[in-house]
Design goal:
This protein is of the alpha+beta class. Among the domains are: about 110 residues, Phosphorylase Kinase, domain 1 (2-Layer Sandwich); about 190 residues, Orthogonal Bundle (Transferase(Phosphotransferase), domain 1), CATH 1.10.510.10. Helix content is about 30%, strand content about 15%. Helix 4 runs antiparallel to helix 6, helix 4 packs antiparallel against helix 9 and helix 6 packs across helix 8. The longest helix is centred in the C-terminal third of the chain and has 26 residues. The radius of gyration is 40 Å and the shape is globular. The two termini are about 75 Å apart.
């Protein structure tokens, strides 16, 4: 059954027209409701604009055809729609207020009355919806279907006629998903099977391959139909357009359509949207996205890209550098930004200098004299030592307090000259540090 049009698009019938069974009910009262106008007809029944006699509320009445009202299976299927919708309870799915099966043989649903138009009408009247608007609409459809699947309901008849658009005050579209008349309730063994095995139900232009073959379906059948609608919105054409119903169904089962980005005259479709569409309409259900939540998340990323928006990286507070550390009132100069490998080599060099200074202090304490830097011959360019870091440092490395000296076997530093080859001192040697104190060079 089709969409529920708004008051601006209510179907008008000429008085000269012969009264049909549907028109003959206009003006009649059913419980608290009076039928005001016929809005549309579907395969299972008719839709009317109705008026609540007591509170003055306008509603939509979905009436089951009288010849079907006597069929218990049809009545159960009609009731299953109300149960499925109420089971979902989502803002993007039409509300069903009541279900009535009276003693006169009339069976109907009372739904909220919607003012707007369905997606099919919009696609036919508007020359190409903006891509961003199309993605916004389908994102809401994805949320509604995700809620339905979470509640164990598969729509099985998703098509543009069942996607109703209400224009809000700010001009944005608000989606209402309609017509769960052939919905399948999953995960409930108590519900009767209303479709015979091997029977295909759905609309040929949007039916999933497994659904066309009469196999059992799950939420991935809705994802396939969703992908076909998204394909049509993005390209302006149906992927399996054919005037013959049998040929259309055969194409759904066997034919892979051209990618949207490869169509002549197609819009600049983002690669991410192109990939999502082709994955949704994959022939094998296992090759499609498995859940609507994934589809919705990918659409959000695509929508952000259409706006040119991108997530900014989180700014981390910079760690303090050596230029911000002061030792004994002496601030080190600002250092250039180095690559991690250079920083590691620099740290190793600082540690080597610290070890050399420590050995130098021990040599002075032992009575040796250090040659002045100006008198020392130019040393060859040093190479990186095989292991510049000692296996163990005793005591806290940044403390300048006196500590106990641990004797270790050390080698003579390269800067220390043996007594036999020692030249005349060029300057007065520096006084030895007091016993128990050593100059500490912090190592980072």
């Amino acid at each position: 059954m089709g969409a529920i049009p708004g008051h601006s698009e209510i179907a008008c019938f000429d008085d000269a027209d012969e009264p049909t069974p549907a028109l003959s009910l206009v003006g009649r009262e059913f419980g608290n409701y009076r039928l005001l106008q016929l809005l549309g007809e579907g395969g299972m029944g008719w839709i009317y604009l109705a008026h609540h006699l007591r509170i003055g509320r306008r509603v939509a009445i979905k009436m089951l055809r009288p010849e079907l009202a006597s069929d218990p299976v049809a009545v159960r299927r009609f009731f299953a729609e109300a149960r499925a919708v109420n089971r979902i309870d989502h803002e993007n799915i039409v509300e069903i207020h009541d279900f009535v099966h009276n003693e006169h043989g009339y069976t109907y649903l009372v739904l909220e009355f919607l003012v707007g138009r369905d997606l099919l009408t919009m696609m036919e009247s508007d020359t190409g919806l903006p891509l961003a608007r199309s993605v916004d609409i389908m994102s809401q459809v994805a949320r509604a279907l995700g809620a339905a699947h979470e509640a164990g309901v598969v729509h099985r008849d998703l098509k543009p006629e069942n996607i109703f658009l209400i224009e809000e005050e700010d001009g944005r579209d608000f989606v209402k998903l309609l017509d769960f008349g052939i919905a399948k309730l999953m995960c409930t063994s108590a519900s009767p099977r209303l479709t015979r095995a091997g029977t295909a139900v759905g609309t040929p232009n949007y039916i999933a391959p497994e659904q066309a073959l009469g196999a059992d379906v799950d939420q991935r059948a809705d994802i396939y139909s969703f992908g076909l609608i998204l394909y049509e919105l993005a390209t302006g054409r149906r992927p399996f357009a054919s005037a013959d119903v049998v040929e259309t169904v055969a194409k759904q089962v066997t034919e892979v359509p051209i990618r949207p980005r490869e169509l002549d005259g197609s819009r600049d479709i983002p690669p991410a949207l192109d990939d999502l569409i082709m994955q949704c309409i994959a022939k094998r259900a296992a090759d499609r996205p498995q859940h609507m939540e994934e589809v919705e998340a990918r659409l959000r990323v695509i929508r952000a890209g259409l706006d040119g928006a991108c997530e900014q990286p989180i700014a981390l507070a910079p760690e303090p550098s050596l230029a911000q550390v002061s030792f004994g009132g002496l601030a080190l100069p600002a250092l250039p930004v180095l690559a991690p490998r250079r920083i590691a080599l620099g740290a190793a060099a600082l540690m080597a200098i610290g070890l050399g200074g420590l050995s130098l202090g021990r040599a002075v304490e032992a009575g040796q004299t250090v040659a002045h830097a100006s008198a020392a011959p130019p040393a060859p360019e040093p190479t990186a030592p095989a292991r510049a870091v000692p296996r163990r440092l005793h005591g806290p490395p940044l403390s300048a307090a006196p500590r106990r000296h641990h004797r270790r076997k050390t080698t003579t530093p390269a800067a220390v000259v043996p007594p036999a080859a020692r030249p005349a001192p060029a300057a007065r040697p520096a006084p030895a540090p007091p016993p128990g104190r050593y100059d500490i060079i912090p190592v980072y």
